[in-house]
Amino acid sequence: MALNNVNILVAVTGGIAAYKCPEVIRRLTEYGASIQVVMTESAREFVKPLVFQAVSGNAVHVDLLDDQAEAGMGHIELARWADVVLIVPATANTLARMACGVADDLLSTICLATRSPVIVAPAMNSVMWEHPATQANLKTLQSRGIILLAPEAGSQACGETGIGRLMEPEKIVESLKQMACDGGQLTMKHVAQSTDSSLLKGVKVLLTAGPTREAIDPVRFISNHSSGKMGFALARAATDAGAEVTLIAGPVKLETPGGVKRIDVSSALQMHEIALSIAGECDIFISVAAVADYRVDEIKAQKIKKTGDDMTLTLIRNPDILADVASMETKPFCVGFAAETENLDAYARGKLQKKNLDMIVGNLVGVQSSGFNSDTNAVDVFWGSSGHVAYSSRSKESLATDLITLIASRYGERH
Ligand code: PMT
């Protein structure tokens, strides 16, 4: 069985989603995992410890000072016992306490005392989730290696709609099953997140991805370092979310994700023509491509010969594909990207306004492990006058899942 001999310490904190946790435990035990449960004081207001004792087959741990523990130090024994600590649901308060390193109850001391991977599955009101304090705490936790099973979009117990619902129990369990087993040591680097397949059901999504090539003569061109990885990952995530996806790709060496309709182009003018001809029939346009802002005024028919020490090329502006789509009479929900090397917030927000976009994904480039051609990426997303979510560095596939969830949520609010 996938989780045979894996010791999972399940920590329950005080949110309404605590009622879903027994289902997570039941499924984990079905795959062979051994479970111990820790409950915070407020979690016990939502579900009785007896329920968790019944599904885990073990007495529930609630006290920091435990006279049943061999050396009276229950937190150390549990921290050593656990191959993995799974906090489900993790409240905003729990994330904040973990980020600060608070150690005044059983769970918080275990989090400091364990050397094993810690996974958090947050659940909270969507405004609390999006609050800069919560996002900053998450960023801190992720920078320390804590693994996030991101909450999903949908209707919430508080009556709001947005991101904050606990990831569905079967998905949490699937994520744990995908733990890589490396020489007997559990590593959680490969925990996959999947998109809810009904999030964008029936929605038509158009994306651009990759670089453009601006020919100078038959053998030379102007281009950039875009690999297409970010755009292709988004196309895949949008398809997984149930969307009908068309991907206009510049010259890249990537396989087309299953179910995606791909149209290959080379220059910005070609990308512009195709995008404008399709965008009117689409619901969402995501402009990930690194489109050349300029092209040479005249492409030479023959290879240019060396004639002197320098050479002058005259460049003229390319049309702005995204701005032109966003100014269409019946425009789709428009999501832009902004690749910046400095002043990310100000420049990205400037483009959001100037191009009349619904959202913009600010991408710091020219740094390690982010932006062009990297397998990982970290971005800041902006919308409206103050909307902002930061996503710390993660694989482009995982980021794409998070971005599609956010885009679907904001698109859903509009429609
Ligand atoms: O492809 P990868 O190697 O995975 O790298 C990903 C990425 C770094 C290319 C991607 O995350 C990214 O940031 N894409 C936007 C790159 C860019 O050209 O940014 P910009 O700030 O110059 O353009 C702003 C927006 O306008 C972008 O959405 C761009 O697609 C769009 N644009 C720009 C110029 C133009 N003529 N037409 C456009 O549509």
* Basic shape: elongated
Percent in strands: 25-35%
Number of helices: 14
Strand order of the largest sheet: 14-13-10-15-18-19-20-21
Give a structural overview.
This protein is α/β, with parallel strands linked by helices and 415 residues long. It folds into two domains: 7-195, Rossmann fold; 204-414, Rossmann fold, CATH 3.40.50. 32% of the residues lie in helices and 25% in strands. The chain has 14 helices and 21 strands. The strands form six sheets. An eight-stranded mixed β-sheet has the order 14-13-10-15-18-19-20-21, sandwiched between helices. A five-stranded parallel β-sheet has the order 2-1-3-4-5, with helices on both faces. β8 (180-182) and β9 (185-187) form a beta hairpin. α1 (21-30) runs parallel beside α3, α1 runs parallel beside α9 and α4 crosses α6 (106-113). The structure holds ligand PMT. Ligand PMT binds next to α10, α12 and β18. Residues 208, 210, 226-231, 268, 287-291, 293, 318, 320-322, 336-339, 351, 363, 365, 371-373 line the site of ligand PMT.
Sum this structure up briefly.
The chain is an alpha/beta fold and 415 residues long.
Features:
8-stranded mixed sheet, 415 residues, Rossmann fold, alpha/beta, binds ligand PMT, single chain, 2 domains
Give the helix/strand layout.
Blueprint: E1 7-12, H1 21-30, E2 34-39, H2 43-46, H3 49-56, H4 74-81, E3 84-90, H5 92-100, H6 106-113, E4 118-122, H7 126-130, H8 132-143, E5 147-148, E6 152-155, E7 161-165, H9 169-177, E8 180-182, E9 185-187, E10 204-209, E11 214-217, E12 220-222, H10 229-240, E13 244-249, E14 261-264, H11 268-279, E15 284-287, E16 294-296, E17 315-317, H12 321-326, E18 333-340, H13 344-354, E19 359-364, E20 376-383, E21 387-395, H14 396-414
Helix pairs in contact: 1-3, 1-9, 4-6, 5-8, 10-14
Bound molecules: ligand PMT.
